[in-house]
Design a protein that fits this description.
- About 6% of the residues have low confidence.
- This protein has a five-stranded parallel beta sheet.
- 22% of the residues lie in helices and 28% in strands.
- Helix 1 packs parallel to helix 9.
- With 496 residues, it is of the alpha/beta class.
Length: 496
């Protein structure tokens, strides 16, 4: 008797969705794999490199969807946003008016920018290729921009922007609070004032535009493309109209209290501050702070004018088309709850990437963050879970969930984060070992009861694999003490 031909469906054309679809297509070449995406471009993982047991590096390349079909003939790509899910009928309804029946569904629709205010023409969120190009176009005519937020996008922007004054408003006491402690932040701050090094290597990734969206039945305002790649700014000229390099002022421990357009601001007869570096000079010369299209009042009472504002305060999981009239368990952060097999609370529906929130008890040294590495890992693992479910087999939690590991680049430094790198959840019963060489490296080890629980490595230390092993095997290191970071001891060979 012939086996019934299953239809496996993935919603979302970002890293998690495309990785899941590719793995399913490779594992089940006889099955039909449907990938539904609102964007004409999908995010493909390229140049994947497994650095160590849990650390990985890769590029994210935007590709037209037909290129996916060329590599995986059993994948059918549907160009449309999802309008509704009827989980009981196992049916997806798209905004283009079509309906598709599935046997197993994996939701990988990512997240959308958490905007500080809606429907303001001077407030931009950066999420996909179109919004990045819109930002680039606005920046090219700008003298000043206000950036609100302290996550990865904000960190990249404040360093990459040239030829424009930047007011950076963050709610924390230090920059990059999600990634660094105050010490690491202090190490990085000088880079904001230094001239950027000349980029000699061109961006290797092929660039595509989304002009063909106009041919689709998807309104730009209604459908977000999948999130930008980790090196999204490479090859983009992020430069304003001023003849300056970096000019950045950080306002700490504050948020946005009010936003006024120029006419309203004038009618309120309020006074805006000059850019802090210029304030003393302008008092001497009597120059009045110029007029701006939009003004921001911070919760610390300060008011600044700007050409526009960038809202970079994180993402909200894209769950709306799915949760309506379906019994999904939704986490406090808005994500779809998933168990250890990436299964949601709804039968035959899985989820992966930014759209989901892990509901299992995580391993002691792992935690969820909405990052590129975890999006790829979850998409890959979700495909394995779906395959096991189809085959009626059980599957163990993937090794990538044993310990947190992430490698990226901030302010032109290589940054490696391992385990409980900021002592998350360890309470006060821990100690820190530090090594810092100004302008070169910042290394921090988190120790508890003589065992390494986490590490932050900024710069080219080449110690990530050694420290990852020490974190994973939880060896008692009490006898070594501060020698673990002694630059005169080759710790890499010592624990080889």
């Amino acid at each position: 008797m012939a086996t019934a031909r299953l239809r496996l469906m993935v919603a979302g054309g970002g890293v998690a969705g495309v990785t899941c679809a590719e793995q399913l297509a490779g594992q089940f070449p006889e099955y039909e794999i449907i990938l539904i995406t609102a964007s004409p471009l999908i995010k493909a993982v390229m140049n994947f490199k497994q650095i160590s047991k849990t650390l990985e590096e890769f590029d994210v390349e935007e590709r037209p969807t037909h290129m996916l079909k060329e590599h995986y003939p059993n994948i059918d790509v549907i160009h449309s946003a999802v309008q509704q899910l009827d989980a009981e009928l196992h049916t997806i309804y798209t905004e283009s008016g079509k309906e598709y029946i599935y046997d197993k569904l994996c939701i990988c629709t990512g997240g959308r920018p958490k905007m500080i205010v809606k429907d303001n023409p001077y407030v931009l969120g950066i999420r996909d290729t179109d919004s990045a190009k819109k930002f680039q176009s606005r920046l090219a005519k700008a003298k000043r921009v206000i950036i609100v937020g302290n996550g990865g996008i904000a960190l990249e922007l404040v360093y990459e922007i040239e030829g424009c004054e930047v007011i950076w408003a963050i709610k924390d006491k230090a920059i990059g609070n999600n990634f660094f402690d105050a010490g690491a932040s202090e190490f990085l701050i000088p880079q904001l004032k230094a001239d950027k090094p000349e980029v000699t290597t061109p961006c290797k990734r092929t660039k595509y535009t989304t002009e063909e969206r106009q041919k689709d039945n998807v309104a730009e305002s209604e459908a977000l493309g999948s999130a930008l790649g980790p090196d999204w700014h490479e090859g983009m000229k992020l430069k304003g109209i001023q003849q300056i390099s970096h000019r950045i002022h950080v306002e700490y421990e504050c948020e946005i209290a009010n936003i006024w357009l120029r006419e309203e601001f004038v009618s309120l007869q309020k006074v805006a501050l000059a850019f802090p570096d210029h304030a003393a000079e302008e008092r001497k010369t009597g120059i009045v702070e110029e007029s701006w299209p939009v003004y921001v009042q911070l919760t610390n009472g300060k008011i600044y004018g700007s050409d526009f504002i960038v809202s970079a305060t994180g993402v909200i999981p894209n769950v709306e088309p799915f949760v309506t009239n379906n019994p999904f368990d939704v986490a406090e952060d808005g994500g779809l709850k998933v168990d250890e097999q990436m299964h949601t609370s709804v039968p035959d529906v899985f989820a992966a990437g930014d759209v989901c929130t892990v509901a299992w008890e995580p391993r002691a040294l792992w935690h969820q963050m909405r990052l590129w590495t975890q999006a790829r890992q979850m998409g890959y693992y979700a495909a394995k879970c779906i395959a096991a479910d189809v085959s009626g087999e059980s599957i163990e939690l993937d090794f990538c969930f044993e310990s947190f590991a992430h490698v990226t680049k901030f302010f032109n430094y290589k940054v490696v984060l391992l385990g409980k790198y900021n002592a998350q959840g360890l309470g006060t019963d821990h100690e820190l070992l530090l090594r810092c060489t100004r302008g070169l490296e910042y290394l921090k080890l988190v120790m508890q009861n003589g065992r390494m629980k986490g590490a932050v490595l900024i710069g080219e230390s080449n110690l990530e694999e050694t420290f990852e092993n020490l974190i994973l095997n939880q060896m008692d290191l009490s006898a070594y003490g501060e020698n673990l970071l002694d630059p005169h001891i080759d710790i890499e060979d010592y624990f080889d």
